[in-house]
Each structure stands twice: as structure tokens, then as C-alpha cells.
């Protein structure tokens, strides 16, 4: 059965397959209190729907007792089957208002989405044949986000009751602008969505129409998590884990190193696609390149905001090159992993 009890007596993980990397998504089903509730929905594929039905039948639950569907963010592997779950049960679907806006922008009008994304890729130097691959990938994914749910917006900082316990809704922008985590102080438990993942780095990407500096948001959101007493993290990919602050420290270090590398790759000047190719290596699928490209743009945006890089439009495309500052003042979270001033100077030094 695709369902396993992860925290007795009533927190179950429903592990659904994905047709891309990572190869699965964890949704959570919580019993206890009034009815049962769900955190994240998975992709809307025949496999996901079959697994959900098996889980519900296996636990002896009734669809009409599903009281709430919380979606951590608008990405297809979390939001895709929310409409299907809602059709089965009539349950409300809850997201942050920023998450709802992102879902509408991404999945509300495909024609507009494709046109905006194509123009955006072109501006950043993506070759036509690769833009075609990106579009084909988007189209394939769009079929797995159906039907659209009716979403009720909730506020960050509010409390919700799940399985007889109280959870605080945490706004954790970065991986997506409208990303939420659910935190139970009493159980010292965090449902982290894609904000904290144990085995892979959360992809922090810049997408058209999205946040202008997602990496900065992400590092700030991570910092807020460090202040919470958490014993166990239940992530959307991978296995449950403890000691999140150790993990966060590793992440900060990872991003510092990447910022240093991107600073070096942008010198003496290049467009985002050229930097992405230098950064990503070979043998990636179109889907993977698309995410590395978004990630590269997030680093470039961070460095541009810090004036370590600057960008200019040349012959219809955007180019990045060294900016006014040879180094910048790290914000408080990045200091956790050491001094970025020094890292950036070293990065430049390699090129000099
Ligand atoms: Zn995900």
C-alpha cells in the first residue's frame, strides 16, 4: 500500500510517484479530531489517483469525511491533484494568498504562460530549439494539473487545527513566493513542503512574474525556521529527519559556494544561458536544464541586487558582468555559514 504510518497515532505518509526528478512526492494524511485532512496532493495522474484511492480504502476512511486539503505551494507535484481530491470529497483547498496568485498565474491561462515564458527565455539567451523543449515540457506538465481546485486563501501566522493539534501557518517564501509550512509547537513538528528537504537541495529559481530575489527570500525564511524548537521535519520529498538547524547551515554554505561560483562564471560577461551551461554540466534532460536555468537566474538576481553583478540589454538579450562592488555585505542568514565578503573576493581572485 502507498501509505505508511510515520508518526502514531494518526500521521500517515502517502508516497506518490512522479514522472521526473525527484521520483516521488510525499503527501500527508492526518486522522484524529474531526474527519481527516491532507497536506499536499501530488500530480494529477492516473497513478496518483489510484494511490489516493488505495490509501483511503486501506485506512477505512470515507471521502466525504475529508475536511481540508492544505497545499504548500503551487508547483505541479504538490498542487496538481488538489482539484481531483476536492472533486472526490467536496473539501476546501487552502493556500496562502500569494500561493493562490501564483497558481492562477501558472495554471490559469496556458496561452499567456507559454507566451511570457518563451519571451523570457529568449531574452536570457536560450536557443530556439531548447525553448521548444521547455515548452513541450511545460505542456506535458500542464496536463497533470487538472482539474483546477477552488482555493480558499489563508494567512501566514494564523493557526489551523489538524488531527486534534494546533498548527501555525508559516510563510516561507523562496522555493515559491507563496510557500507555506505547518508547524506544531506542541509536537515540535514541521511539515516543511519543499522548504527543507533532507537529501536534495530545494530548487530556488527565478521564474517570470515571480519574486525578483527568491534566494534572498529563501535565506530569510530559513533563518526564521532556526528560531523554532523542532524535533522532526516531515518533508515533501525524502524521509523524515531531525536537527533542521544543522541542515540549514549546510544549505547556507551550499548557496554561498554557488554565489561565489556564479560570480566567477559571469566574469568578464555572459548571458544567463551561457552561465547556466557552464554551471550545469552535460547530460541533463530538458526538464532538468529548465530548473538549473531558473536557479542560475536566482543567483544572478541576488548578485545583481548586491551590485556584485550588473546587467544590460545588448542586441535584444540581457548580459551580466561585474558590477560596482567587488564584494557585498552579507545579510544575517548568510553570515551563519561564514563571511561571504571573503568568498566573493576569492571568487574574483580566481579569475583575475
Ligand atoms: Zn516538490
Topology, please?
Layout: E1 3-7, E2 11-17, E3 24-30, E4 36-39, H1 46-58, E5 66-70, H2 76-79, H3 82-89, E6 93-96, H4 97-107, H5 110-123, H6 128-142, E7 151-154, E8 159-162, E9 165-171, E10 180-184, E11 189-193, H7 214-226, E12 232-235, H8 244-265, E13 270-271, H9 272-280, H10 286-305, E14 309-314, E15 317-322, H11 332-335, H12 340-351
Parallel strand pairs: 4-5, 5-6, 6-7, 11-12
Antiparallel strand pairs: 1-2, 2-3, 3-4, 8-9, 9-10, 10-11, 13-15, 14-15
Helix pairs in contact: 5-6, 7-8, 8-10, 8-12, 9-10
Bound molecules: zinc ion (ZN).
The site of zinc ion has 7 residues, from α2.
Notes on the structure:
The chain folds into two domains: 208 residues, Metallo-beta-lactamase, Chain A (4-Layer Sandwich), CATH 3.60.15.10; 100 residues, Arc Repressor Mutant, subunit A. It has twelve helices and 15 strands. The C terminus is likely disordered. The strands form three sheets. Strands 1-2-3-4-5-6-7 form a seven-stranded mixed sheet. It has a five-stranded mixed sheet with strand order 8-9-10-11-12, with no helix packed on it. Strands 13-15-14 form a three-stranded antiparallel sheet. 43% of the residues are buried. It has 352 residues and is α/β, with parallel strands linked by helices. Helix 9 packs across helix 10. Helices cover 41% and strands 21% of the residues. Zinc ion binds next to helix 2.
